[in-house]
Design goal:
This protein is α+β, with helices and mostly antiparallel strands and 153 residues long. Helices cover 27% and strands 20% of the residues. It is globular, with a radius of gyration of 15 Å.
Length: 153
């Protein structure tokens, strides 16, 4: 996993709609992970939540597709560490959103037992709460990348 760039954008530029949530319904992880619908906040609530922020940090990660699960786990941990660092710097409401479903635990106990082993670490996925990534980045599907967001203030 490699961080390609970090960019700060005005939070008002981050569009929230039901369209990404509907894409979630086609995912095999739908309903199987704690950061996925229907466990994630509804897009309407997320839209109001996003409006309460002024800035968002968009992070683009390059991942090795041969090690996708491990690299994605590194991305999630990086985002959590960045959130924690921002919190320590005085951004008390800093909050990260994951690229796709949470895979911090392997195997995921939520899938079997319906409970998360790390509820303090799991974050909703961007799509699960309706974030339209295309509102803040231009996607190139030939790249092996993931995007994360940390809302700042």
């Amino acid at each position: 996993m490699k961080v390609l760039w970090e960019r700060e954008v005005e939070a008002e530029k981050v569009r929230v709609s039901p369209r990404p949530v509907w894409k979630c319904m086609a995912c095999p992880m739908y309903g199987r992970r704690p950061g996925c619908p229907p466990s994630a906040p509804r897009w309407q609530e997320a839209r109001e939540w996003v409006r309460s922020f002024k800035r968002a940090l968009i992070v683009k990660f390059e991942v090795d597709m041969d090690r996708f699960e491990e690299e994605k786990r590194e991305v999630l941990l990086w985002l959590l560490n960045r959130e924690a660092r921002l919190f320590r710097e005085g951004h008390v409401y800093a909050f990260a959103l994951f690229p796709g479903s949470c895979n911090l635990c392997d195997p995921c106990p939520y899938e079997v037992e319906g409970r998360c082993r790390m509820p303090d670490k799991v974050r909703p996925s961007l799509d699960a709460v309706g974030i339209e990534l295309t509102s803040v980045v231009e996607l190139d599907f030939s790249e092996n990348v993931l995007y994360g967001i940390v809302f700042i203030e």
